[in-house]
Design a protein that fits this description.
The chain is mainly beta. The chain has helices spanning 2-18, 126-130, 155-159, and strands at residues 24-25, 35-36, 42-45, 48-51, 59-63, 71-81, 84-94, 97-105, 114-116, 137-141, 147-148, 167-175, 178-183, 186-193, 204-209, 215-225. 12% of the residues lie in helices and 43% in strands.
Length: 227
Amino acid sequence: MKVLVSILLVLQVAVWGAEEKGFTAIFNGNNFQGWDGKPEAWEIRDGEIWCTGKSQEKNWLIWRKDQPANFILRLEFRWDKGNSGVQVRSDDLGKWQVFGYQVEVAEQAKMGLWHHSLLAKEHPKKKARHLMATAGQSNTLAPDGSKTVKQLSDPKKVQAHYKENAWNTMEIIARGPKLVQKINGVPFATLEDRDMEMSRKKGFIALQDHGKGCQVAFRKLRLKKLP
């Protein structure tokens, strides 16, 4: 029976990649091949990646096969409890800690956030980069790190397109200094990061478990590289 389930999952992953031209599945639905995570913090259930809720400390499940620069990342995610996120163009700090751009995964009122993970509290650019962009915004960070905010839409109206305790789609588009996050096909927040010191050109993709009983899941992860 387990062999049959594994075969079906492999076939399903092939379908995910084939149905979208240029996309490649980066999670095979069957095991953590190509991924690296804290022991006992992550598990696979029916072709889905889940936080086990056992870790008390924040940690990341890191995709090790590449550090893409320009790309489209598509996936489905489900939030039930706690705090999580999807990391792109990030550095590996060791011990399953990563530093870079994060799309927040949390309750509805927090969705739409572009955040710089693990930036020290005393960092001089912490204020600008902690909340780089939030729901309904299209923000620009200038070469000196200063931020220009453009509120294009009502945050609550944007966030209403996201559903807690249910599966949602996510698309992250990274091209040059511009980063866009879409949830269920709706643009949630756009960031143009031209900070000469802090902007990220490439890096790891990772999934966050914030610890303390986090219950979040991911599936159907696929990637398309852009020129």
